[in-house]
Amino acid sequence: NAGVTQTPKFRVLKTGQSMTLLCAQDMNHEYMYWYRQDPGMGLRLIHYSVGEGTTAKGEVPDGYNVSRLKKQNFLLGLESAAPSQTSVYFCASSYGRGGFTDTQYFGPGTRLTVL
Amino acid sequence: RKEVEQDPGPFNVPEGATVAFNCTYSNSASQSFFWYRQDCRKEPKLLMSVYSSGNEDGRFTAQLNRASQYISLLIRDSKLSDSATYLCVVNNPSNTGKLIFGQGTTLQVKP
């Protein structure tokens, strides 16, 4: 089992460019999440999905879009990158059935720099 | 008030020391509690779930006090490899599947 994988690992963009971050999980989890982590801010939820074909906003969704066309994949898109989106992005997944099945498993992260 | 509060540290301790981290949470309806560990420039990883009766995993002991809405993590006989940030995590009772992460407590174990 690979668990949760993310591509790419690193990326540098110029302001205004677009990109898509890909997350894949092989644990048959229903729930998937995208977080960003900035120094001193902790993990902040961008968007999440409770199942194939569904998406929902987290606490910092502006400037991002997501899609969950397949259960195992969750894509995060930046349509027009801004320097404020420089961050480390983590994808996570869980069974999401309540209790300790809410344990989230994280991918290795994508380090994004927007110049 | 933050939903999950932790002392950010850093805690600097010598090898072999015992160190305790505390965490408070604001929503009394929360039911699931976890400690995650995050190494520098790495992803958070589950260290242990926290059960109502408390639980132990080797040198690590987690305790839950529902009345005070307080969670603790005790590390005995600290190793250099324990140096990391420890995240206190609580479920969001209003939304199944969502977790609330504390900002973390940094531990540095010195030789």
Question: What would you note in describing this structure?
Answer:
The complex is a heterodimer of chains A (115) and B (111). In chain A, 0% of the residues lie in helices and 50% in strands. By secondary structure, chain A is mainly β. Chain B has strands at 4-6, 11-14, 19-25, 33-38, 44-50, 55-57, 60-65, 70-75, 84-91, 99-101, 105-110. In chain B, the strands form two sheets. In chain B, strands 2, 4, 5, 9, 10 and 11 form a six-stranded mixed sheet that branches. In chain B, strands 1-3-8-7-6 form a five-stranded antiparallel sheet, with no helix packed on it. In chain B, strand 4 (33-38) and strand 5 form a beta hairpin. Chain B starts with a strand and ends with a strand. The interface between A and B is medium-sized, with 24 and 19 residues.
What structural category characterises the helix and strand content of chain A? mainly beta
Helix-strand pattern of chain A: EEEEEEEEEEE
Overall form of chain A: globular
Low-confidence residue ranges of chain A: none
List the helices and strands and how they pair.
The complex is a heterodimer of chains A (115) and B (111).
Chain A: E1 4-7, E2 10-13, E3 19-25, E4 31-38, E5 42-49, E6 56-57, E7 64-67, E8 73-78, E9 87-94, E10 105-106, E11 110-114
Parallel strand pairs in A: 2-11
Antiparallel strand pairs in A: 1-3, 3-8, 4-5, 4-9, 5-6, 7-8, 9-10, 9-11
Chain B: E1 4-6, E2 11-14, E3 19-25, E4 33-38, E5 44-50, E6 55-57, E7 60-65, E8 70-75, E9 84-91, E10 99-101, E11 105-110
